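Private note to self, pasted from the team thread so I don't lose it. Backbone tokens:
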């Protein structure tokens, strides 16, 4: 059964409407536009969303506009206590809102309109499913993962242990080396990366204990995360391997790009930005991992439809995975908001940085979506006050860096 979401800042209305609709639908509620967006990202899919117009902070029209970017198939019903012709015109013409109900609205009318809206949603979804089996497959994977019917992958043990060791106040390089040396593959790759052009010093690196002082503890953690992250990208299906490789290089490039942008802005903790860039698209990889186990993956998947489908679904699913891994809220915001952060007036700087790095990868050919982006028109760059010239320089440096980094990892 598809769900209904009610968004209103008045808790009494939420309670009454939920009671009225509970007999017919699974119903969730949210007390603000921001909370409603969060519910759509975390708890969707919803077939029908019923939203008040006048709410503090994000109003109903702003909420619907942003929600449509996340889930354009939802049927929206507006609640209003005001006969505002301009608002109603915008809702109907620009946002394609299906119904406008005037408060107070009786239960019979509410139920009828919600049922009719759900019929339109189901018809819309069934048509899309018939036209696009790849989209249907991806949507079913996303739903099963969100509802816990598929097992989420665990964070690699070595990453958990390193995070715990680094948090201790008197951690030594020997403590870090002891954890890393438990994994022969990670140890070998760490030594290789520490001795590569990117980190090269005068002395040749031969052991983990020699690599850590050159890199520093935080950068060591970043590199171990990168190594284990690439292992997470392992795919058996031959048709998916090319897409996997492009995704891996995109994430690596975005990691270095985010670090470079943060450095240009004199932001602290550059390794945090590297990690954010590295895992910003983790939702896409999760979908590919599940598809890799599908028996129908070889014959039924259209690759361009797959790319478009995972692009649409990956942000909310990435947030689900990082919450499962107990990552900090800032990392979760990056995964869920990086595609269009300027739609949110108070988004964190880190989200804007990752967005810029993500766009840079498109311009220099390290993305699933290559385009000649006008860097000077980026709203995120304007908010951070970073010039087009600076971004062009970073892009050129990334091209050179990626030749070495791709080989090192």
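Design output:
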């Amino acid at each position: 059964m598809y769900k209904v979401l009610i968004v209103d800042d008045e808790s009494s209305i939420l309670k009454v409407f939920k009671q009225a609709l509970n007999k017919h639908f699974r119903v969730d509620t949210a007390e603000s536009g921001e909370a409603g967006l969060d519910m759509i990202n975390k708890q969707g899919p919803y077939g029908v969303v019923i939203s008040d117009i006048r709410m503090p902070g994000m109003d109903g029209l702003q909420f619907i506009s942003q929600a449509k970017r996340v889930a354009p198939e939802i049927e929206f019903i507006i609640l209003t206590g005001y006969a505002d012709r301009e608002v109603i015109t915008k809702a109907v013409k620009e946002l394609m809102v299906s119904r406008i109900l005037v408060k107070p609205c009786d239960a019979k009318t509410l139920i009828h309109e919600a049922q009719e809206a759900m019929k339109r949603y189901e018809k819309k979804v069934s048509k899309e499913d018939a036209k696009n089996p790849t989209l249907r497959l991806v949507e079913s994977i996303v739903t099963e993962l969100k509802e816990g019917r598929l097992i989420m992958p665990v964070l690699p043990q070595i990453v958990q242990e390193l995070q715990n060791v680094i948090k201790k106040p008197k951690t030594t390089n020997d403590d870090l080396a002891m954890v890393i040396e438990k994994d022969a593959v990670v140890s070998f790759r760490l030594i290789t990366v520490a001795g590569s052009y990117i980190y090269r010093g005068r002395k040749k690196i031969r052991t983990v204990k020699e690599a850590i002082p050159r890199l520093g503890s935080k950068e060591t953690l970043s590199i171990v995360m990168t190594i284990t992250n690439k292992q997470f990208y392992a795919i058996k299906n031959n048709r998916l391997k090319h897409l996997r490789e492009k995704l891996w290089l995109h994430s690596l490039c975005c990691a270095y790009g985010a670090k470079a942008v943060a450095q240009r802005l004199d932001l602290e903790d550059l390794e945090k930005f590297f990690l954010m860039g590295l895992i910003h698209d983790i939702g896409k990889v999760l979908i590919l991992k599940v598809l890799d186990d599908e028996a129908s993956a070889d014959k039924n998947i259209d690759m361009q439809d797959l790319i478009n489908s995972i692009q649409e679904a990956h942000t909310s699913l990435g947030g689900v995975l990082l919450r499962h891994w107990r990552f900090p809220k800032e990392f979760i915001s990056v995964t869920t908001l990086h595609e269009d952060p300027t739609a949110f007036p108070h988004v964190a700087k880190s989200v804007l940085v990752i967005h810029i790095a993500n766009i840079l990868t498109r311009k220099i050919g390290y993305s699933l979506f290559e385009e000649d982006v006008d860097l000077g028109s980026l709203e995120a760059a304007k908010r951070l006050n970073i010039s087009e010239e600076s971004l062009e320089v970073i892009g050129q440096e990334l091209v050179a860096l990626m030749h070495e980094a791709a080989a090192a990892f």
